[in-house]
Amino acid sequence: MDPRHLIQLATILEKGSITQASQHLHLTQPTLTHNMQTLEMQVGGKLFERSRFGVRSTALGDMLAREGRAIARRLKDAAEVSARHRGGVSRTVRIGVGPLIGAAFLPGVVEELLRQQPAVHVTVQSDRPHLLVEQLIDGRHDIVIAPSWLDRPPPGIERFLLVEDDLGVFCGASHPLAASGVLSPGSSEGQGWISLGTASPFEQHVREMLEEAGVVTPRSEITVLGEAMLLLRLLAQGRHLSVLPRFPTRLLQQYFPIVELALRARPQSRNIHLWCRSTMLEDPAFAAIKNAILAHAARAGEKTEIGKPVSRRKVPKRRLTSA
């Protein structure tokens, strides 16, 4: 099987037609058609179906196109590595990170890595946590920094506890509830919420915590996907509430006028982990990078008091039990 044929298949399905794919790949249509016929013969099945609206993938075509995209990414990565090597960069570290923890934690991590290893090159990609782990498995990252919703990591993946974190409720300093610093049962009625995402593995944890705090049906007016700065700027305007992980949000409070509200509910754990492929740990240089990130997280945790007993504003008992 020619790997170029898999890349060509991925391009056909991406462009939606052989005509557009041939133009993009700088191949004639007969050549591209012949290559797909060869690939279909080798794999023993149809890769896509033609119609007057273009091409529609089969299940087999989808699976093989995924491999083609992976090959194309590897080739692009190889070209970038070669270019950086010519520029004097001896090593690249690819980090995948959630948007909020990335904005709060990654600047310090990158500065530390560059200080310890001046010849290293760091790439950072932000995405939703469950997608980042899938991308790590596919080889698109060397390290992922994200919370865990799994009992154990997937085969071939290792994870290390970065920070013991949990969820909190936050609002802007000008929000009506900010003065009391309390989210009591019924106090959020009619208030709008900003959601970090839908269909998330952590969605049930958020719902359970809010129900225990007396917020039965939060009215989500805004959903923000993969964009930390937008979420924080909206929250800082003082018209919404949001459930956010406490560790990165506390780090970012120095830049945004955001207040955490005390609530009558058990904290929902959302520990943050460092994920990597098991084979990477055999490289002493990579192990040093991993240890540097863990050490930086420990120092950041001390600054925010994360990992210590939760320091919340003391609230009179009558406020917590009022309807």
UniProtKB/TrEMBL annotation:
Q: Which family does the entry's similarity section mention?
A: Belongs to the LysR transcriptional regulatory family.
Q: Which InterPro entries match?
A: HTH-type_LysR_regulators, LysR_HTH_N, LysR_subst-bd, WH-like_DNA-bd_sf, WH_DNA-bd_sf
**Top-level taxonomic group:** Bacteria
Q: Which GO terms describe its cellular component?
A: cytosol
Q: Which keywords has UniProt assigned to this entry?
A: DNA-binding, Transcription, Transcription regulation
Write down the CDD domains for this protein, in alphabetical order: PBP2_LTTR_substrate (cd05466)
Start and end residues of each HTH lysR-type domain:
1-58
What Pfam families does the database record attribute to this sequence? HTH_1 (PF00126), LysR_substrate (PF03466)
The identity of this protein, by name, is: LysR family transcriptional regulator
Q: Which GO terms describe its molecular function?
A: DNA binding; DNA-binding transcription factor activity
